[in-house]
TrEMBL record:
Residues 27-392 form the Aminotransferase class I/classII large domain. This is Aminotransferase. Its cofactor is pyridoxal 5'-phosphate. InterPro entries: Aminotransferase_I/II_large, Asp_trans, NHTrfase_class1_PyrdxlP-BS, PyrdxlP-dep_Trfase, PyrdxlP-dep_Trfase_major, PyrdxlP-dep_Trfase_small. Homodimer. Pfam families: Aminotran_1_2 (PF00155). The keyword Ligase does not apply. It comes from the Bacteria. Its EC number is 2.6.1.-. Belongs to the class-I pyridoxal-phosphate-dependent aminotransferase family.
Length: 396
């Protein structure tokens, strides 16, 4: 049996962490994976999480199974966060939310559901997109295409190309869109451009699947979630995967959710019943702890306010690192312009480093980035930034 098993390539993102972990260089820096580190290079345990966990510990509740669709209080809190408590889709009970195993798990149960009910549709992802999007939808059985997105000449979005592609997709196509903080490029659409995208997507009967893994890392929780609410208002089916890995710094707890908007309460109930079958046949029901932590934090006014403060502090520190990176690169490499790093949003910078330069960074300096040149600005800090800038200047 195993004689015919080929060695699979390393994962393009998590494989970098494996290589980084094995590296003995004390100056090593991991700019690969999308993880926020504080100025001491540590993944923070947020105070709102610590307090929510203290409350849960106090209760010492038994660890029973969660329902297939997750903790009810969590699903409700997520739905209100994603769509707004007073939104029509929540009020009219047309939205359903299912707790999922991180944002990836949410994408996968959405993909499996879609394969069952839209088996002939094809999936369209941005060029480029998060490395796992293509593999994930392909493993659910879909043909995955890409639509133009990033324009290396302007370091922004090739909007005409994107809109043209949307206008020519067959009705029923599944379009994966990044709600905010586009991964990997950090190039987001403007409000006006989103308006046009929503018009085309709903007008042509495409199926939008919004991936929102970085809510709060762009402009703020509400601003980053605006496009989801606009899609919900526009009518038509809608899929939204969201994750608290980054925004609650709960990476290992795998806390995410999939929300789907249907045309009526009755339709939503049928959708939920089928989604539960997908979950049951994959992993039965989601884990308890992370969902409880997030539900407690979101539903307790004091903890919710604390979360917003802590998330804002992460957002601000990343912005400071962007500024510092640009200023320091300017000093070292005066003939090149890096201002684009400041306008990119979220955790990443699509740096323009080539694969060969990324390899040199890794092999000669133990600075780890994704082969595409994506670097995680949220892993820079006041202690490692000079080392990283020196290394980048040398490979440039
Ligand atoms: C990333 O893009 O680095 C993160 O979303 C982590 C992952 O699972 O790839």
């Amino acid at each position: 049996l195993f004689g015919a098993v080929d060695m699979a390539p390393r994962d393009p993102i998590l494989g970098i962490t494996e290589a980084y972990n094995a590296d003995k260089n004390p100056n090593k820096v991991n700019l690969g994976v999308g993880v926020y580190y504080d100025d001491n290079g540590k993944v923070p345990l947020l105070e709102c999480v610590r307090k929510a966990e203290a409350q849960l510990l106090e209760k010492a509740a038994p660890r029973t199974y969660l329902p297939i669709d997750g903790l009810a209080a969590y699903d409700k809190a997520v739905q209100e966060l994603v769509f707004g408590a007073d939104s029509a889709v929540v009020q009219e009970k047309r939205a359903i939310t299912v707790q999922a195993i991180g944002g990836t798990g949410a994408l996968k149960i959405g993909a499996d559901f879609l394969k069952r009910f839209a088996p002939d549709s094809q999936v369209w992802i941005s060029d480029p997109s998060w490395e796992n999007h293509r593999a994930l939808f392909e493993s659910a059985g879909f043909v995955v295409n890409s639509y133009p997105y990033y324009d290396p000449a302007t370091r922004g979005v090739n909007f005409a190309g994107m809109l043209g592609a949307l206008q020519s997709m067959p009705a029923g196509s599944i379009v994966l869109l990044h709600a905010c903080c586009h991964n990997p490029t950090g190039a987001d659409l403007t409000d006006e451009q989103w308006k046009q995208v929503i018009e085309v997507v709903t007008g042509r009967g495409l199926i939008p699947f919004l991936d929102m893994a970085y809510q709060g890392f762009g402009d703020g929780i509400d601003a980053d979630g605006r496009v989801v609410r606009q899609f919900a208002q526009a009518g038509g089916p809608l899929f939204v995967s969201n994750s608290f890995s980054k925004s609650f710094s709960l990476y290992g707890e795998r806390v995410g959710a999939l929300s789907i908007v249907a045309a009526s309460t009755e339709e939503a109930a049928r959708v939920l019943s089928q989604l539960k079958r997908v979950v049951r046949t994959n992993y039965s029901n989601p884990p308890l702890h992370g969902g409880q932590v997030v539900a407690t934090a979101l539903a307790t006014p004091e903890l919710r306010a604390l979360w917003e403060e802590e998330l804002a502090a992460m957002r601000v520190r990343i912005r400071e690192m962007r500024q510092a990176l640009v200023a320091k690169l300017k000093a070292k490499v005066p003939n090149q312009n890096f201002d684009f790093v400041i306008t990119q949003r979220g955790m990443f910078s699509y740096s323009g480093l080539t694969k060969a330069q990324v390899e040199r960074l890794r092999n000669e300096y133990s600075v780890y980035a994704v082969d595409t040149g994506r670097i995680c600005v949220a892993a820079l800090n006041s202690k490692n930034i000079d080392y990283v800038v020196d290394a980048i200047a040398k490979v440039l």
